[in-house]
Amino acid sequence: MKKKTMSYVMTGALSITILSGVPSSPAQAASPQLIKEQAAPAVTRSGTKSFAEVIADQAAALGIHIEGDDLETAAKKVRLAKLQKQADYYGIETENKEEKALRLQIKRAHEVDVHNMADYFGIETEGQRVKEIIASIADVNPEAAQQLNGFY
């Protein structure tokens, strides 16, 4: 009988403890979050660039004119120019191809290039991902791995 009474008392005490921690209205629930957000200091980073600056720098490096374009259009132009450059490197025809199909062809050509380089250096590729193979190539020849690492 004492065990049963004690379990009821403990269950009741635990219930009161749990219920007392829950706010009774949405306004009370929101107030601690607002206080945390207001008290948090602003985070500023020195030496970092905004996305727009990065896109502008990449466009200038690729020789693309993006003046007057919105950020999304400029980013798309830069992305397509990078794909075009990679396709030219691998000798892939880009005429009348969608971006996704072109990206897939470049990825496959890069994987073949990585496997050929691994075979040249005598590195086992069975069951390894492309990044793992490039890391193995880096152990043997860092310059070759750096050349392979720049794609997608």
TrEMBL record:
Residues 1-29 form the signal peptide. It comes from the Bacteria. Keywords: Signal. This is DUF4168 domain-containing protein. It comes from Domibacillus enclensis.
